[in-house]
Amino acid sequence: xxxxxxxxxxxxxxxxxxxxxxxxxxxxxxxxxxxxxxxxxxxxxxxxxxxxxxxxxxxxxxxxxxxxxxxxxxxxxxxxxxxxxxxxxxxxxxxxxxxxxxxxxxxxxxxxxxxxxxxxxxxxxxxxxxxxxxxxxxxxxxxxxxxxxxxxxxxxxxxxxxxxxxxxxxxxxxxxxxxxxxxxxxxxxxxxxxxxxxxxxxxxxxxxxxxxxxxxxxxxxxxxxxxxxxxxxxxxxxxxxxxxxxxxxxxxxxxxxxxxxxxxxxxxxxxxxxxxxxxxxxxxxxxxxxxxxxxxxxxxxxxxxxxxxxxxxxxxxxxxxxxxxxxxxxxxxxxxxxxxxxx
Length: 343
What we know:
Blueprint: H1 2-12, H2 35-47, E1 51-55, H3 70-81, E2 86-90, H4 103-115, E3 118-121, H5 125-146, H6 148-151, H7 159-165, H8 169-185, E4 192-194, E5 198-203, E6 206-215, H9 222-225, H10 239-242, E7 247-255, H11 261-268, E8 274-278, E9 281-286, E10 291-296, H12 302-318, H13 322-341
Helix pairs in contact: 2-3, 8-12
């Protein structure tokens, strides 16, 4: 395979008697489609000094419930961590009959075209090898000149993240909620019904209502945090909507920045609850009132939001939490009905 050949060639290059390059390619990842291999790829994308993506339009494996492919997530992760280290070479032929065309593929293609991040293209093996070597050489010089401090300064000053950062709180919140709603609705294996700030998604053959919210800045900023407040205090307003489905609401909050366990407990209103820090953010469950909060961290743009919710859905499977979430949602529905009838 050409990537293995180029890996061998690059690692053999010498600079002043040293071999400065260590190359990792996707083939080096764990062969199975497990979360371990997914996280290994994300870790490599975050930790590498130079990322060269060979783009053919294929978003890669999305997982069981995913809407973002692993190739898309790798590139997005690297770009968010350090835009100055990411480079893309276009090797795709979009007009070919066999061109990738799944929903995840189209999302990746639109993302790359909108961002216009290609530095070169290649149509055959020799041209590709030359472009990769040229890219690595230029990137090495550039990184030395700039220094890693400048390239790692932040992720919100370019691309879609910058577009969201330009928005005011209200519009940014709307965009975050729209991305969250679309991510919950776009599933290959389960149907989802949506309205403005709610989404009804089938989990373990039960229809569960998700109430959506967004914190459009750091959770430490009162004005941003108060746009969500304590969302479960208004659950009684959803009683009529809950009557026709199996359970809910589960409150899913997209957080523009990180969220902590202490912040999630303050949102709940008391500390005596199950609080889980997970790859997507924070999950909170109050076993007495059956309140469930899902705080998705790092929702800096549409793809980051979708990826975070994808990680939450994957976590439900990995942690055997699906049935517990459903049972909690069913219990919460009964409590909400009792509250509404007493008003």
